[in-house]
Design a protein that fits this description.
A hairpin with a 4-residue loop joins strand 2 and strand 3. The chain has a single domain, classed as Jelly Rolls, CATH 2.60.120.10. Strands 1, 2, 3, 5, 6, 7 and 9 form a seven-stranded antiparallel β-sheet that branches. It is mainly beta. InterPro entries: ChrR-like_cupin_dom (IPR025979), RmlC-like_jellyroll (IPR014710), RmlC_Cupin_sf (IPR011051).
Length: 108
Amino acid sequence: MLSLAAGFDAGAWSWQPFREGIEQVPLHEATPSGLRAALLRYAAGARVPAHEHVGYEYILVLEGAQEDERGCYPAGTLLVNPPGSRHAVRSAGGCVVLAIWERPVRFV
């Protein structure tokens, strides 16, 4: 369970490799639907290449800032990317986000 009652402490979690420059803490995986939730920690300068959302994606920025072609999103921002939306994600200074995917993404 993810509890933010006492604030968020990224060091309290066991991080695993996810993509180059990005670590994860898997929180929930429901197959075969593809529903998934994870904490993602981006190192400064880390990027996720352009991808399309097949289902909804919800991102809550917990620390730092995340950005894409539409803007920069500081801690406390909730993003909702609907099915069919596309973007490439990056974090200049590093960030931690809670990501919830309704379906896996498709890289373009």
